[in-house]
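#onboarding

Welcome to the new folks! Below is a worked example of what a typical request in this channel looks like: someone posts a single protein sequence, and someone else replies with the predicted structure as tokens. Don't worry about understanding the tokens yet, we'll cover that in week two.

Example request:
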Amino acid sequence: MTLNDVYTITQILAALAVVASLVFVGLQVRLANHMMRAEAMRNHADKFQSVSRAMFEIPGMAPLFAKGFDGMASFDAVERMQFINIVMWILRIAEELHLQFEEGLIERDLWDANCRIWVRTFQGKGPREAFEVRRELFTPKFQTFFDDLVSRPDGKSLY
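Example response:
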């Protein structure tokens, strides 16, 4: 075997090593992307469940939300503040999920299911009024999405 043969063999081995490392990096990127999506979905589920849990764990929250569903006109100042903040909590979760969906981190099925929940939640006059009070605190992109979403009610009740 000549020196030139050894050189050729080492070049072939080096090229194979580069290809193998690129395949490995590709697999690692794919796995990291999958893990990011799974974490985003878990994070969202936790946040969404926190609202549901709060409705029955925090005394007065469910009655306040039920009272405000048809409008905020009958609220005193404290009830109005509490109701607006409950709705803001829901909307912040929605805005975060909207961003994650736009970035491809949330699956379409989960996205569609949540959109149905929001449509039913914001069929109520009170939640829409609360959104209008704080509208400017949301990104313009989310405001446009939200306006479109709530303009197409599905006719089904939230509860």
